[in-house]
Amino acid sequence: KIKSLRDARQLFLRNIMHELKTPITKGRISAEMLENTKQKERLIATFEKLELLINEFASIEQITSGEGIKNVKPYRLVDMLDEAIDLAMIPLSQIEQEIEEELILHVDFRLFTTAMKNIIDNGIKYSIDQKIKIIATKHKISFISQGKPLKYDLSYYVEPFVQEKNSHNSFGLGLYIVDHIIKAHQISFTYEHNEGYNYFNFEKIETLE
């Protein structure tokens, strides 16, 4: 019975994603045909965001279904960070990087970049100055932003659609996805607050020399 329920859930999610892709693609094509206006740019940005959400749902489905990570290969961290920043659609002026050269991680490229994208997006969204700093060494990647400390432990915020009391700001699925992806890679996801800055860390990462 449990297996039947799990299979039904997977089928439902996959059908939902498949059905949503067609109207999103058609909408994107229609938007591209408009004259160059602000409305066109907004429409295209909206459809791009919807495409990203579909991809994130696919990531959730893959991890939570028990399939785990499949396409694990060595990738340069700088390349994955570039992809994550592009996915987050955030100007480089808002991001500072201190990365040891030629760091290579043995990960699933799509899943890991999705996790980093969500951390970058959340870090900037809840920062005071709308900026984030990324520091990476052989054993740790830190995403640092200026802001108030979290009111609760990190375990509270990695639940889906967590929202602070008396606040309209919701963490949505962002940290939930990050937590599942990072743990699937056997990496620790930690948080700390120090001197006015929030640190979200991927620790005990394994790099290839």
Strand residue percentage: 15-25%
Which of globular, elongated, flat, extended, rod-shaped describes the shape? Answer: globular
Assembly state: single chain
- Mean pLDDT, to the nearest integer, reads 84
Helical proportion? Answer: 40-55%
| Largest sheet, strands/sense/barrel | 5 strands, mixed
Number of helical regions? 6
Overview of the structural elements:
It contains 6 helices and 8 strands, in the order ααβαββαββααβββ. With 209 residues, it is of the alpha+beta class. β4 (132-136) and β5 form a beta hairpin. It starts with a helix and ends with a strand. The relative contact order is 0.12. The model has no long low-confidence stretch (mean pLDDT 84).
Tell me briefly what this model is.
With 209 residues, this protein is an alpha+beta fold.
Main features:
209 residues; globular
Write the layout of secondary structure elements.
Layout: H1 2-32, H2 38-64, E1 72-76, H3 77-88, E2 95-99, E3 104-108, H4 109-125, E4 132-136, E5 140-146, H5 154-157, H6 174-184, E6 188-194, E7 197-203, E8 207-208
Parallel strand pairs: 2-4
Antiparallel strand pairs: 1-3, 3-8, 4-5, 5-7, 6-7
